[in-house]
Each structure stands twice: as C-alpha cells, then as structure tokens.
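Researcher: Re-running this chain for the archive, since the previous output was lost when a drive failed. Same request as before.
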Amino acid sequence: MTINQIVRNTVERLKTEGKAWTPEYYTEAFCAEAKKVGIVMEECKGVERFVVLLDKKTQEELKQYRVRTTAELIRFLISKLSRMNPNDASMMVELLISLVRSMAQSINVLHNPEASALAKKTISILEAQGGKTQLELLKQAWENFATIYDDAFLMKLSPYGQIDKFNLKKTVEGLSSSSASSSKNDFTKFSSLLMLGLSPSIAPQMNDQLMALTQKVQANPEFILEATFEQEIKMAIAMRIALDKKNVNDMLKVLDTLLGKLSVQLIDLIERSDISSSEIKGIKKDLEGLGDENTGDFKVAHKKLYTIATTLEEKVEVLSKDLKAHNDKVVTMGSRIVALEEELAEATQASREDFLTKLYNKRALEEFMAQKEADYERYGRNYCIVMFDLDHFKRVNDTYGHDAGDAVLRAFSQILKAQGRTNDIIGRFGGEEFVAILGDTDIEGAKIFANKVREHVQDARLMYQDTRIQLSVSAGVAPRDMYPSLGKTMVGADEKLYEAKKKGRNRVEPA
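Model: Regenerated structure tokens:
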C-alpha cells in the first residue's frame, strides 16, 4: 500500500469519527492507518524516540507527569531547565541525607527494638546510596511503625508512680515500690498461701470446720501470730488428711463397682465367642470373684486387673486375625474420607470467594465483620470499615464492553491486595463496590490506606486491547468506635462514600 492510499484512508477516518482537521488529530489518524498496514513511520513514534535519549530519572518523571505529545515534552523540559540549580540541589540533598542519618542514629539509642531495627536499616540504606524502590519500602516501613505503635504498656507501671508518656526518664525515676505493700498485705499473701495448702488434694471440697478456720484467717491475717493458731493449724492438717483418706476409700468402692461391671461384660464376650478351653474358664472364675472381694487397696486391684489382662492378651490373637481381614476395607474408606474432606474444604473456600476477583465475597465479609464485632465488644479492639466504589464504572462497560469491565475489576482487586496488610480483610461487596476491614486501626490509619489505594488507581495505566482506560475510585471511611453498632458503622461508611461521590469523586471522605 502506498503513502497516498494511507492519506486517503486517514481522510476517511477523520470524516467517519467526526474530528476536526487539526495537525494533532491528523497525525493520530495517519499513524493509526499506517500501523494497520504494518508501516512504521518515524514521525509516529511520538515522544518515545526522544524519551529513550534521556536519563532514567527524567524518564521516570515523564511517566509520573504522563507526557504523551512532543509539545508536552518540550514544555516539561523547559520547566525543568528553568528551575534547575545543580549546586543548591546537590547541597540540599546532602543536608537532607545528613539530617536523616542523624535522626536515625538518635532513634537507634531509644529503648524500642522495632524502632532501633528500622533506624539501623535506614542508616545502612543511606550509606549504600539505595535506589528509589528501597527508599519507598523504607518510607512504608516507618509509616507502618507510626501507625501501629502502641505505648499502652507503660500503664502497667501506674501502681508504682505517675506515668509521663512524653518523658520516659522522668517516669522511671519516679517509680517507687515502697507504697506497693504493707505489713498487713504481706500477712494477707502469706495467709492466702497457707489456706491454699489446707485445701484437700483429693477430696473435692473443705468441710465446715476447715472452711471456718479459713474465713477466720482471711478476716484477720494477723491471727497467725496468736498462740492458739499452732494448735488449730495442726488440727486442720489432720482433718485435711482424714478428708483425703475418706475420699480414697469412696473411690475404691466406685472402682469395685466398675470392676464388677467390667467382669460381666468380659464374661459375656467370652461366652459369645467360639473359644472354649480350661484357660477361658479360669478367666471367667477370676472375673466372677473379683467383684465379690473387698478390695481395700489400689495395689491389690491393680494386681488383679493386670493378671486378667495378661491372660486375655494371649487369647485375643484369634480376634486380631479377623480384624486384619477387614483392614483393607478400613484403609479404603479412610482414603475416601480424606478425599471427601478435601472436596468439602474446596467447596467451603469457593463459597467464600468471589469468582471474578478471587477476593472474599459478601458472605465471607459479613462473617469476618461478625468476628471483628465480637472482639470489639469483648476486648475493645477497634477496627475500621472502608467502602470503595469505582467512579463511572458503567461508562467503562458501555464504552468498552463487559470484558473490559471485568478486566478493570480484576486490576483494582490486585491494587487492593498490594496495599493491604496481612491481617486486613478485603473483599468484593457487589458490582463495582469493595470493602476493606482494617483490624486494630484508627481513622487516621484507615485514611492513609484509602488514599494510597486511590492514588494507585489514579496513576495506574490500565490497558485493554491497546486502549488506555482512565480510572478513579471514591471511598468512605468509618471507624467502629464512632458508631453505636456494626450496622450503623456500615451505614456510616456507605454515607461517606456517597458524600465523596457527591463532592466530585476520586476522593476519600472520613467519618
């Protein structure tokens, strides 16, 4: 095909699309027609032919500013040249690096292992002149530390002095153990241990006399210093031993009863078997007599049972042959059970997973919300709910088709996964609406998370069949501790999402 034919096709294309005959539209249509017939024109490469000549840092800046035309590239370079001052920039970078290194060295001497580890890593990356990716990861690590750090452990020292969370040295110097106890409290602790020793070790509970002595000591711990206490404690110890002995005798009687029932069951088993010999008759005789004898000692009962068990062991070999015959069937059934359990696990997972995005579905999200709500009510562990909705998603389906819409939903789900923490629960609530449940997170942490997701969506270059789809997302944030119930929290997140839509979309609205 000749250039003239491409020109004619370009003219027809502009007429069909109804576009004005500007140089920009003409060049775009001409390059599209040339590409269709496999002709590569140097002019059609656009800014790419110039971008490859620039350094990597400038190329990255061009991607961030989304420079697409030669005119935009020229304006960008002019702006960059006009504000460039190499001496001042280099000096500022060196000062900032020195400042960060000094701050990291200061943090390293604090009494927090997580902060010290991050500080050492920061110094190492600065000395190695790490790249952008390392610095981004390091920045994320510091943000995570600041988000989840909790100094509530200091309140454990409150019984020993005043807590100043902004001055650890002052807090430690103000600690005192002199007021933590008194002589009476010491007697109280000692008397509690003494009474614990009087509790019967075998008998289920104290009798009235032991209980009365215990209550007397608990009411007046200094009673242990009185002269009559020694005699009373001796009597109490003797009483405790007597209670334990009585309980042992009661258990022996129960054991005799159990032995009698066991003998009946074993005799019945032997009589229903095909084995008949003098040994079996001897076992029967021993079992019948075991329940009638007065067994007054555990050792005697143990010896009799051991003799009977030894004799039975010699005879059960016949029964083991029958069991082996059925072993193959048991193994087969066991394998089948394992297979069924695996199928059940897969079916359970499928019932909780959204088929398109592979995130949790609405049913699973509601189960996780119920768990988070239980933790909140029992332990006061706060959590936040963030509702996301893709802006103008219907326009994507109407313009590019439902396949493109599905591709957009999958891409957005990957962004959510990448920004979520390990313990964050993320799922598709329905259509283009997604929900993130952020455990142990306050409203500020939830806002940071939601804005990161929004910025990644805004900057993403979503391509579908060589066509770039511009996308944005709106979000509503609702922390649980600002609402009376889980249901109200969900309604709050939804209302904030609607407010973000109303204010122009591509924004995060917190409660």
